[in-house]
Amino acid sequence: MSLPSASSVARPHRKPRLDPRSLALIEASVIPMGALLASALIFSLFLLMLGKDPIRFFSLVWTGGVASSFSIQNTLQRAAPLILTGLAFAVPARIGMTLLGAEGALVLGGLASALIAIPMMLGGWPVWLGLPIMALTAMAVGGAWVGLAGWLRHYRGVNETISSLLLTYIAVAIMNFLVEGVFRDPGSTNKASTMPLGPDWRVGDIPGTSVHWGLATGLIIAALLWVLMERTTFGFSARIAGGNLRAAQAQGLPVGRLAVASCAIAGACAGLAGFFEVAAVHGQANASLAAQYGFTGILVAFLARQNPLAVVPVAFLFGALAASGGLIQRRMEMPDATMLVLQGIIFVTLLTSESLYGRLPFLSVSQAGDRT
Amino acid sequence: MTKIFKTFRAPSLETLHMSKSFGRNKALDDVSLKVAAGSFHALLGENGAGKSTLVKCMMGFYEADAGQMMIDGQEIRIHSPRDAQALGIGMVYQHFTLVPCLTAAENLVISRRDIPMVINWKSERQRLDAFMETMPFRVRLDAQVSTLSAGEKQKLEIIKLLYLDQRFLILDEPTSVLTPAEADEILGVLGEMALRREVTVLMISHKFREVKAFCDSFTVLRRGRFVGAGDARRVNAAEMSSMMIGDVGMRPPATRLKTIQDGPKLELRGVSTLGDEGRRVVSDLSLKLCSGEILGIAGVSGNGQSALIEVLSGQRPLSGGEIKINGAPFEPTRRNFDRFKVFGLPEEPMRNAVVPRMSVAENIAFRSFDKPPVLKRFGLMSSARMRQRGMELIQQFNIHTSSPDAPIETLSGGNVQRTVLARELSGEVDILIVANPCFGLDFASVADIRGKIMECRNRGAAVLLVSEDLDEIFEMSDKISVMSAGKISDPVSTLATDAMRIGKQIAGQTDEIVAGPQAE
Ligand SMILES: Nc1ncnc2c1ncn2[C@@H]1O[C@H](COP(=O)(O)OP(=O)(O)OP(=O)(O)O)[C@@H](O)[C@H]1O
Ligand SMILES: [Mg+2]
């Protein structure tokens, strides 16, 4: 070789410093934490302006979210769908797609599982067969719905963010149309709903808790998706395609199929969340399905830096915020929307903190962010 | 920050004891550089020597860890490119920074710092026309930038700096995308301006020919350190190169061995494809490529070469015709790439061949991640084996990186190219598709990479080489074709033609085609 051998190449380093991967990991934790702290400060200012006591607010979040076993279970209950919808954003983000379709997939998935349950219940099918069929139906419908956004993106060049958002509106409209129309249960007088599931057709709680099985399922799926995205050829291909589409094409990777598959996985996660909302929480499909879990999931995934494992603790955090919402509303006499304000602030600080990557001096592996 | 000089006068510029580290990698170590007013100064050094880092520190893109900067003997501090612009220091980057969908005129006007909220295009346009009268180059102001040739774009980049009143011009490898004629025109004009003391120029270049022809002084960096400076007219290229790499011998030029041409064959029949605007950019193109030979395709860029390469590498769909390998129809899918052992070195590796944010080891694994030994059961991958293989190839191909886990975007241009080379040439190759493989590489790497491609040919690969560099075409090819306006001429044996004839053909005098008896 003609070049003088580089002094920097693969030589044992005298001063062992953190390798780039650990530095990147630290960076990916420090920055979102900082953003959270900053949003807490900004929100405190907001409260002060309203003449409310921020300390009281945060202590109520503590009380309502984690202090008692009741509040913890309340938190976990709300975290369950957030894990799944968070994953629904995180997986396609790896391939560079910003999908806002989780809410729609959740709603349609929930609706589909409630509807397919009706003939099975009437036909006297065994529950052990019926519930898995309901879950699979929810996943298939959710997967197809969001997969459509992926297909439109790849084969028709339609922006996936817009199409998935519009698909969400359509999904909610379809649900309302069907629930208030053909599939309305005559018994549902004040809130139009589908026929309620029989008591034995409900998904139960994890023994010893009042938290339904959706949480355990969410944990397992998060672990599986982490393995899928970090350790398999599928995840690796998706990262190549998400990082540089032209390079992925030149490697002969099936970029179209990868995109559609990622979207379908996302939709299936959200659909599954819908199934648990129906079979474990509401017992029927109605407008309560559209409870913004799909949109909060976006925030969850953002804060977790699209890492499927990190989605879990972040979902707990947002679950706690949601769980304490009622308490705060009552004790501090603040409107319902307060929590939305907090979420909005978190979102904006998070987006702002994105610009910090590669610029923290004590973490300077690379300053690639400085490039033009 | 105030303007120190408003007059059209070339400033002198000096950096003193500049240092800059990225993590534990010392990219600049106590570098001092002195550029006299009105000089045309060359900054030399092998790939990864720290040239780009030095000028980016001068421009305020990077904050230097230590060091001073002086303009006309006065100390200045630059924290951002805005500061540099205010002081009259401007840079032309290695890649274009113009907005392709705007016209040349629009690009100039929006680049100003004092751009008004509402632009009065009519008066701006009059002022621009008046300004262009004073310019040494002509550029079509009304043309959309995406339709300009590389040379015109580069001229526009330079005009932009002058329009912004910048009198210290930093050019990072400005000629790598230009033909020699274009390069000579632009550098010639800048040289005259420097002589008239209208500008001072600092140019990073790997081309000794240009340095000897246009520069008056030079500085050499080696592995982040200053190793010397001098008068470019008195020091010869050999001395400069030994300053750059130290006293290690050059690799001898690639030797061409006799090959038997009965191995793999690539055949294109009537291939057509559409460009991004829906125009036909390659039309009815046919060629035949045998094992153990290099077919060089010469021509000015923008004549369909990129589209041809994109078709072969699966980045652009075929609109007509067929591709055959060993007589079997070939579709550019991953399975077929592996089955027929097709490999590629595309141009602009950052755009076409690597994922900037993924690590060096991961980028090296793009061909092998879905096969054993990296692939284990159930689609699972072994990242340990991937990293291990990465380290081996980093050693073997002499890639300068701080770690196999460093993102590839932190490597210097030449080392990115080597990483791609390591990935594509480390196995058995039957068909190799190469486009402008030596853009932006230092002379040692050029020799190295050409050697590797030649070795591939000698081992029996069929090589398609698209290049704008005629010297490269003549050094490497067994046969030469010329591409223009999406069509390709019949291949001619390299021994049966010469640079003059091919050059003429490129310039469009295709009537007296070099075919006939020589074609055999
Ligand atoms: N953003 C960055 N982060 C980390 N390391 C970097 C970064 N930019 C450059 N380096 C390192 O600094 C060294 C010098 O790189 P630089 O780009 O200045 O080289 P160069 O002389 O311009 O080479 P070339 O001729 O290949 O463009 C290299 O070892 C490179 O890996
Ligand atoms: Mg450089």
UniProtKB/TrEMBL annotation, chain A:
CDD domains: TM_PBP1_transp_TpRbsC_like (cd06580). GO terms for cellular component: plasma membrane. One of its GO terms (molecular function) is transmembrane transporter activity. Pfam families: BPD_transp_2 (PF02653). Its main location: membrane. The keyword Transmembrane helix applies. This is Nucleoside ABC transporter membrane protein. It comes from Celeribacter baekdonensis. The lineage of its organism: Bacteria, Pseudomonadati, Pseudomonadota, Alphaproteobacteria, Rhodobacterales.
Automatic annotation (TrEMBL), chain B:
GO terms for molecular function: ATP binding; ATP hydrolysis activity. Keywords: ATP-binding, Nucleotide-binding, Sugar transport, Transport. Residues 13-248, 266-510 form the ABC transporter domain. The keyword rRNA-binding does not apply. InterPro entries: AAA+_ATPase, ABC_carbohydrate_import_ATPase, ABC_transporter-like_ATP-bd, ABC_transporter-like_CS, P-loop_NTPase. It holds the Pfam family ABC_tran. The keyword Thylakoid does not apply. This is Simple sugar transport system ATP-binding protein. It comes from Celeribacter baekdonensis.
